[in-house]
């Protein structure tokens, strides 16, 4: 198949898929959802407004158009969708369908990496939030507040109900603190979330303070200090691992620099890699070696983080 006919076939497939999605999910529902996102409030909103937030309208419209697909298929699509237009652009420039296929294959892989990164960031925020909560509750207890009032006030003051990774925990603890529930049990239940394990120690201190009359503020201060020390050690480890990660990324990008350099010297490396059997074999072997190197480096870094 000629490159031109392959690209025509690809664009026809994309248009057919878009038309099918349009018919499947309903034109009126999609337009109504996009109109609600773009207009929102009572005052009319412009789709394009020059300034720092000029991309909010188009991004919100795109999210509204993809919302029915996420609701029906259970997908959580985000920035990984940028691989599709990038692959199509490279396909047009290289006159080959392979970059478009590679962009489609990269969507779930990039999405998994982004979700893993978001999970790690959420865990780190939970650890920091638990340490801050312990310090805030200890300060309120020393100021004379009852334990239940201090816990509920600290959760609200630290912004737990507004944080997506803490909202469920905040509801559980606020219900127990405000309505006379079993606070230690609620703390143990909340400690099952990754990154919130420090709440189990808070539950133990709370139960000892209630049953035996021990000082709760002193125990919370020790928990907060331990969590701060753990966070500092984790940050130091990440700083030490930043060098190997940067080196691995730079080495992984070197083949791309070689392709750009070859094109600048007058050669046609893209056409050779995508248009000849030898080039395709070299591209496949190089891609497998790149993946193996990145996977090996990532495993070494993860083992170092897990062993800490």
From TrEMBL:
<keyword id="KW-0472">Membrane</keyword>
<feature type="transmembrane region" description="Helical">
    <location>
        <begin position="86"/>
        <end position="111"/>
    </location>
</feature>
<keyword id="KW-0812">Transmembrane</keyword>
<dbReference type="InterPro" id="IPR018076">
    <property type="entry name" value="T2SS_GspF_dom"/>
</dbReference>
<keyword id="KW-1003">Cell membrane</keyword>
<feature type="domain" description="Type II secretion system protein GspF">
    <location>
        <begin position="137"/>
        <end position="260"/>
    </location>
</feature>
<feature type="transmembrane region" description="Helical">
    <location>
        <begin position="248"/>
        <end position="267"/>
    </location>
</feature>
<feature type="transmembrane region" description="Helical">
    <location>
        <begin position="273"/>
        <end position="294"/>
    </location>
</feature>
<dbReference type="Pfam" id="PF00482">
    <property type="entry name" value="T2SSF"/>
</dbReference>
<protein>
    <submittedName>
        <fullName>Type II secretion system F family protein</fullName>
    </submittedName>
</protein>
<keyword id="KW-1133">Transmembrane helix</keyword>
